[in-house]
Each structure stands twice: as C-alpha cells, then as structure tokens.
Amino acid sequence: MTPGSRLYVLDSTAGAGSHVLRSLAETSDDQLGWANGGTARTIRRTWLDTFDWRLYRAGLTLQQVLRNGQAELVLTARDGELVATELLPASPRPRWPALVTQLPAGALRDALASAAGIRALLPVARAISNVGELQALNEDAKTIARLAVDRMAVTFPARASVPARLTLVPVRGYAGQAGKVGRAIGSLPGVSAGGGSALEAALAAAGVRPGDSAGKSTAVQLAPDRPAAQAMSDILESLLDSMEANVPGTIRDIDTEFLHDLRVAVRWTRSALKLCGDALPRGMASEFKPEFRWLGDLTTPTRDLDVFLLGYQDMAASLVGGSETDLVPFHDFLAAARADEHRRLVAGLRSARFNHLRSNWRAALGDVRPIGRLTVAALADAKIAAAHRSALRTGRAITPSSPAESLHDLRKRCKELRYLVEMFGSLHDRAQLSQAVRELKALQDCLGEFQDAEVQRAEIRGMADQMLAGGRGPAPTLLAMGEIVAGLAVRQSRARAQFTGRFADFSGPASRNRLAALARTARPARTSRA
Amino acid sequence: MKILATYNIKGGVGKTATAVNLGYLAARDGYRVLLWDLDPQGAASFLFRIKPRVKGGGKALIRGHRSIDDAIKGTDFAGLDLLPADFTYRNLDLVLDAARQPAKRLAGLLAPLCGEYDIIMLDCPPSISLLSESVLHAADLLLVPLIPTTLSVRTLEQLTEFVAGFNGHRPDILAFFSMLDRRKRLHTQILQDLPTQRPDIATSAISALSLIEQMSVHRAPVTAFAPRTAAARQYRELWREAREHAGLPDPHA
Fold first, then answer.
1. By the CB < 8 Å criterion, does B175 face chain A?
2. Domains contained in chain B, CATH given
3. pLDDT tens across A260-280, in order?
C-alpha cells in the first residue's frame, strides 16, 4: 500500500459494495466531488511464498500480478511499502514453484535471495479481482485522492469470496483534504476502517493461517504434568505430521528442504524411540524402530547428493590448481546420480511399506494411554541428564590419537542430547534453553565439519572410481576432485584441532550447570513410574 | 536525473505550454517527473488545477527553511508532480542575492531530489535575472521557444553567448520554433533559413493553434485532453527530440 493510504473493508452485509458507493456519491458537495476513474480492471493475483512462509516471516509479500496480459512480480513490505518490482517476460515466464535463482536478475531477486534462501517460491493463494477506481475531487475539480474498490474472489487454496476492500490513496500534497474524505468513508454504514493485507484477507477467507511452521519439527507445547506416554505420543504425532507435510514436496522435488525437513522429523522420531521408547507401551518402540531406520536409510543417498550439489559452486570456486570447467563432468555425474536416487526415493515414498508405516504408526500413537504416574517433566529431566552424561563420557574418552569413529560417536550423542533438549523445549526456560542450544551447537558444528569432511572424502573417492570405471572421468576432472578431497582433509584437520577447545567449553561448569538446570525449570513434584 | 528548463527572455512565447506538455509526455513514457512552476504568475499550476501557493513562500524554499519535498503536489497524472508557483517568487532575485553562490543555489536545492525523479522540468519566468542565471547553471538542457522573428533570433544569439561564458557546467541549448504561423512570410523564411545557420534548432516546431490556448479552459495539457490532434503530435515530436538531445533513453525501445 502506498504510504499514507488507508484501507477500509466492507462488512459482509455490504455485499458487492454498490450501495456504499452510492452513499459515497451522496457525500458530494461544493468542496468534494467524485469522478469515475475509468473502466474497471480485472487483476489476477498469485501470492508466492516458500512452503515454510519465509517471506511472510520476514515481513515480505510477493505477488505475481497479471493485468492487461502483462505479468509483474511485486514485492512489498508488511506495511505495503513497495520494495521492488520486476516485469516478467511473456516467454519464458517463471513456472511455479521456482527457485529465486530462476527469476530474472535484478533488485527483486536480490531482495528475495536472503529471505527465501534455497527454498522454492510456490503459490500460497490466488485471487481474481475486479478493481474500479473513483477520484475524489476538490472545489477546483483537482484529484486529491483515489479510491480503489477491489472486489476479490479467492480461487486457491479454496474458493471463497472476500468482502470488498476500499483503498484510499491521497495524491501527494493533499493528505489533509484526503483525510476528510477518509473520515467520510469510514463513517458510512457497513464500512470498517483498517484490515489486513489482501493476502491475509485471501488466506483468512480460504481458512489458512499464514506463518504456520509447515513441515518443521518443532517443540510441542507440553504441560509439565502431562503423563509421559501421552506426551511422547503428542511429540511423535507432531513429528509424523511434519513427515507427511514434507512428503508431497519431496516427491515433486520442489526444493531440497522438503527432504531435509522430512529427514529431520525421521531423525527426531528415531531418537525419541531410542531414548524415550521405554515411556511408550511395551513393544511399541521396538516394533517401529526398524521401519523408521528403513525410512531414514531410504532418504540418505539423495540428501548426500543434495549436499554435494548445494555446495558445488563453493567447491568449484575453491579450486586453485584446477579450473571450474575441469569439474563439470563431476557435476554431471552428481546430477545424474541424484536423479537416479530421487527416483528410488520416490518409489519408496509411494510404496505400500511406507503407507503402512504411516497409517500403523498414527494408529498406534492414537492408542497410547497413560502408563503409571511418570510425568513428561520427570521423563525429560531423566533423559536429558542421561544423554548429557553419555555425551560427556564419550567426549572425555577422546584423545588426540582417537580414531575418527570416536568423534562420530560423540556427534551422535550430541545430536541425541540436542533433539531431547529441543523436543522438550516447551518445558524449559526459553533463555536457558537457547543458551544451552547455542553452546551445544558450537560443539556440534565442529564435530559436523569433521565428520562431513570424512564422509565426503570417502564418497568422492567412491564416485571417482565409478566415473573412471564408466569412462566418465577425464584426468583433469579426477585431478580437480583430488584437489577437493585435499581441501576436505585440510578442513577436517582444522576441525580436529578445534575440537579440544570446543569440548572444553561444553564440558565446563557453566555449560554443564546450564544443561543440568534445564529440566528443573518447569518440573512439578517428581513421581515414580508404576 | 536530468534538469530541463523552458526559458526565454520574452514572455508569451509558449514556455509554460511546452513545460506542461513535455512534462506530461515524459511522465506518460514512464519517467518520474517534477515540474517546478517558477513563474509567479502560476500558469503551470493553474493548468494542473493546483493552487499557486507554497507555505513560507519562495524565501523559505531557497533558504532551506522549508523542504522542497513538503511543497510538492501530485498532479492528476501518474508520475508527474508539481512544485507550485507562489506570488513571492517575484522576489526570488532578492532572496538569491542574499544567498551564498546565488547562481548555483537552485542546482543545490534540486540535487537531493535525484533519487526520486528522473526529470526535473523548470518553467521559468520571462526575464534575465539572478533567478534565470541560477536556472541556466542548474539545467542540463534549455528548451528555448522561438517565435520566428528577427528579434527573437537575436535574443537566442544573446542567450547562447551568455551561456558560452559560463565556467564549468554549461547547459545544452535546443531552440524550437513556437507559435509558428506558416501564413506569415517572415515565419516561413526564418523557419527555412535559421536551421541551416544554427545546429541548435530543433526540426520539430509548434504551430500557433487555438487548441493550445484552450488548455487554460480544459486545465490540462493538450497532449492529455486532445491526444489525436496536430498540436499533440507536434509536442510529441518535440518531446522525442528533447529526450534524445538530453540523452534520455527511449522507453519504447
């Protein structure tokens, strides 16, 4: 919305608004008149955002506006102020979903890049508007404000009609006179001043709430005295929701984050079953553990190749001896392998086994009843403490001569601890929680850097073998891949050197006490399991 | 940002009609245009139905006590704003005289607007004064309406010599025949001869048409209320030439 403009919404009884406009015409006197601003226009809008509402969260609204056969992308801030626009060529026009990198280069793409990141932009709502305009004229018949009357019908995500929206835009230098016009409009029966953006109105009419953490594994709101079994069921059901929310996007391959978020939900589920399975009905965890392991393994090859491809530009740019063109056959190999693996993944996600897992798991979670008197607060306390002890024990056993495998073990323990801390996050003091997570993350980053470099080195070697055997690995490419492996080895040894300091911070009294205090913050009287 | 000024020492030669029509055509081409009606008579302001009044008067603007931004009014045409005339502009010479570097004061005032406008069009009062000197220093292109008479040609020569004497920035000059009456032998003679003698004469010319005078009845540019007429065509042709002369890109290319 233009700065200084005012929005009015007709209430549901105001219908298409024609009687309001008639009333407006009657407000004419010798100081204020109205003129028709010309033929009404039809505007087709498609609002775009990432699956997890990154633009909305960043206070941005992106819409593709189609009028008179001309398509334009318009990016505005939450207050309606224009950030950037981009006229779209008639051909090729972006097909949604699309990554930001697929948009025409320019200010709009630059403004979107940091907010959307690697997530694709996809339609979140569509509407057709019939927009008429009236001009408010002063005693000199000078236009002092324009009143746009927007009659909008939502066509996606559900068909719905939206109360007509009136936007009064003062002409520059006439804010005072336009203010009087605004007050006249606001006083008409059936008209309310204010209202959300057109996107918010469209989504509200379609019954969608923007900004929902779609597909993200986040802490479920838990009451500390909730029976542990039922709390675990709540958590696991939320994780199943997250998995299912990400399956369509993973199958359609909209962007790589769908698979990433699907894997996060699977990992949280597996950790919950491993660490807190004893809080669930007997036999439940052991029954489903192998199935979630299968699901995790199904997703790993595609994700590993995604990681390579997402980091490819940086890898290529890091070459000193080789050139970026040397690496092109490697990119082609990665892309082809990724396409193959994605086909396998899709087959797995469409398989009867996966469908059974979903339905059986949901049914089993629905059947969970309280077991004994163990509360979720007591469970969280005990499990976080145990995972913390385990991480400290594993870390303290690591010496400079320990094999890579020992750091990998510690990484797994730290991940489990992190999942527990975050999974039970709603029970903890928010400030304590974020500080604890920050400290844990510092150690995890170091371990991740070490382990990822270890795994990627091995994977690149394996891919080099395959490329050579298949006649797809010319010498310059293999040499460039060797340079990348060497770079990974340097990164790995740097991470190894950092480890001692990072672990010392993590195992120091401040961090230790913080983690120990976490579960105590919201815990009711401890009760024992029957 | 390019600063264009319609200027002539003589009055009633079509400066305001040119500024108003070229401003409108530039805005219609997608340029963001500000027209400053510097003439205390306020003809351009009248044509856009805007009251010729600036709070604090010209003195407050020139001295920087009042922001130019606050005085700008939107016209009824998208992309075209107006800085209205004010009767106190008749004293701008005195105000400028009291300012430091009076000849460059106008350019300094307009500089902050460069992010907001692509073109600033100055509609100058008829005179040779400190104000017009300040305009000549600020402008990138002077559009000089020229009634095809011997005295007018002499005035153009004086202006060219005056501008040639500037140190540093000198505006380009594009003179064009205005209020042309092809029934008059002197008009046709000068129309034929002068362009062969001077390279700064536009090939387009504006005829003395009653429709242009009717702008004051319609209170709008003739290019807006009668776009299919000869008058509108002539202004469009003049705008094309002025745009090219000012080095502004063709929006239709």
1. no
2. 2-246 (3.40.50.300)
3. 999 999 999 999 999 999 999
The pLDDT score that the predictor gives to residue B6 is 96
- Interacting residues of A32 by C-beta distance below 8 A, sequence separation 6+: A136, A137, A138, A180, A181, A184
Cβ-based neighbours of A266, under 8 Å, separated by 6 or more = A243, A292, A295, A296, A299
- For the cut 60, the answer to whether the pLDDT of residue A522 exceeds it is no
Mean of pLDDT values over A468-482: 94
**Which candidate from B48, B49, B81 shows the least CB-CB separation from A172?**
B81
Confidence category of residue A23, pLDDT binned at 50, 70, 90: confident
Same-domain status, A172 and A276: no
Kindly provide the ipTM of the predicted complex, given to two decimals: 0.86
Closest-CA residue of A relative to B218 is: A141
Q: Is residue A174 pLDDT above 70, yes or no? A: yes
Identify which of B25, B35, B47 has the alpha carbon closest to the alpha carbon of residue B231. Answer: B25
Q: Which residues pair with B175 in a beta bridge?
A: B144, B201
Tell me the average pLDDT across A207-227. Answer: 83
Alpha helix ranges (H) inside A398-429: 404-423
Q: Is A204 exposed, middle or buried (0-12, 13-18, 19+ CB in 10 A)?
A: middle
* Option in B49, B51, B81 nearest A141 (CB): B49
Write the CATH number for A153. 2.40.320.10
Tokens 């998208």 -> residue: B78
Which is nearest to B20 in space by CA: B39, B2, B35? Answer: B35
The count of structural domains within chain A is: 2
- On chain B, the residues whose CB falls within 8 A of the CB of A135 are 76
Q: Which domain, by its residues, includes A493?
A: 228-518
pLDDT band at A14 (very low <50, low <70, confident <90, very high): very low
Averaged over A282-306, what is the pLDDT?
Answer: 97
Average pLDDT over residues B209-227: 96
Same domain? A328 vs A183: no
Say yes or no to pLDDT of A62 above 90: yes
Supply the pLDDT for residue A407.
95
Q: Stretch A233-259: mean pLDDT, rounded? A: 96
Q: CA B90, B96, B98: angle at the middle one, nearest 5?
A: 120
- The share of chain B scoring above pLDDT 90, in percent, equals 62
**Residues A420, A493 share a domain:** yes
Q: Which residues contact B176 (CB under 8 A, 6 or more apart)?
A: B143, B144, B145, B146, B201, B202, B204, B205, B206, B238, B241
CB–CB of B73 and A143 under 8 A?
no
pLDDT value for A13: 46
Which residue of chain B is at minimal alpha-carbon distance from A142?
Answer: B49
Identify the residue whose tokens are 């508007």: A129
- The runs of H, that is alpha helices, within B29-149 are 43-47, 57-62, 68-71, 92-98, 102-110, 130-138
A430 Cβ under 8 Å from any chain B Cβ: no
Q: Which residue is closest to A170 within chain B, CA to CA? A: B74
> Chain B: nearest CA to A171, how far in angstroms?
5
Say whether A173 and B74 touch across the interface (CB within 8 A).
yes
Measured between alpha carbons, how far is B2 from A378 in angstroms, rounded to an integer?
A: 73
Q: How far apart are CA A94 and CA A63, in angstroms?
A: 13
Which of B72, B76, B81 lies at the smallest CB-CB distance from A143?
B76
What pLDDT is recorded for position A19? 67
The residue among B242, B235, B241 whose CA lies nearest residue B18 is: B235
